[in-house]
# Entry
Amino acid sequence: LNNRAFKFGMGEDWKSRAITEIEKHSQELSSIGEQIWRHPELSFNEHKAHATLSHFLETKGFCVDRSYLGIETAYRATYGDKTGPNICVICEYDALPDIGHACGHNLIAEAGLAAALGIKAVLESDGSPQGTVTVMGTPAEEGGGGKIKLIEKSAFEKIDVAMMVHPSPFNLVKFMCLAALGIQVTFHGIAAHVAVFPWKGVNALDAAVIAYNNISLLRQQMKPTWRVHGIITDGGCKPNVIPELARMEYYLRAPTKGEVEVLYSKVMACFDAAAKATGCDFEVMETDSFYENVVTNPVLSNLYEINSNSLGVTFLSGLQPCGSTDMGNVSHVVPSIHPFFAVGDGSQANHTREFTAVCNTPAAHHNTLIAGKAMAMTAIDVLAIPGLLEQIKEAFHKDEDVKLDEV
# Structure
């Protein structure tokens, strides 16, 4: 089987079979996406979604490990002969506080199931390539780093490639997903009566306000690819008491871990200056696992783009900046892709109520299944084209060299 025979022979038949299988289950898949959308659950509390997705995969003939590796709302589902490449399709399903599925993780789960069904249909057909499809259910992307916890428990040790897709206002395959660090800073002052003995107090809220303004001023000297954004979560108890404690939470983002460390040192100087100006003490702690930047495997992403083009999808050109995700950590462990697919009319941005609304429309479910088909087709390429996995891994190791140079 050479590449030409694959393109014009059995390979195209296998891709057609995968597409047919996904279309056969389209209503059921969209129903699951809607069900998760109607019952949004926060990080590590995705119990309904975990049960729904696990049950679906069990009914379709997958071997499912619920609460995988001791993580209550994680799962792993596998199908295959444990020879040949092991293709991992990743599902997310956690929501955001107050605004529900404003990042469309219900659609990520739907696309993952679709791809898994398409790949399985090929693996169980006559004359099929050898290999395994693994569906990894990963909780807590919006905070908690579910994939990082799975990596720490060696969940990706026997995985050859990993892929997932993410809804967005646009179709995008080449992008810059930033490394991210979450921190909490606490300023400690001294409480006092604001009218009778104000000189006895040390105002922790003043320190927080100064720190906030310091960071705002820092932005003029920040690189265009750096991001710092935060909120004051605690600023005192009553207006007539000088606040003895103030607390802030910030996210620091940059293209690489090394740049985040540089940015962190600058932000720490802002906190330190605020503490000295007010006479407060302060402490900083990390609030979340460190999210690595996404390293997009060029061989896999080219395949995904070609397969998507064949389904009528076109992509924005150029390297576009995006947010952060724990899929970045996966991409530092195994060759990975994390393309974006369009939902809505382009005016609805992620993490808004408007985006929540468009993530349960017929058009969104339609585009989700197209993305699922493209993932299945890309997986079939990896399973069936001789030498392709070696090319993918060679590109991955080249990226590793680049990552070492950046440290």
Remarks:
- Residues 362-384 form the longest helix (23 residues).
- Confidence is low (pLDDT under 50) at residues 1-5.
- The longest strand covers residues 179-188.
- DSSP finds 13 helices and 14 strands in the chain.
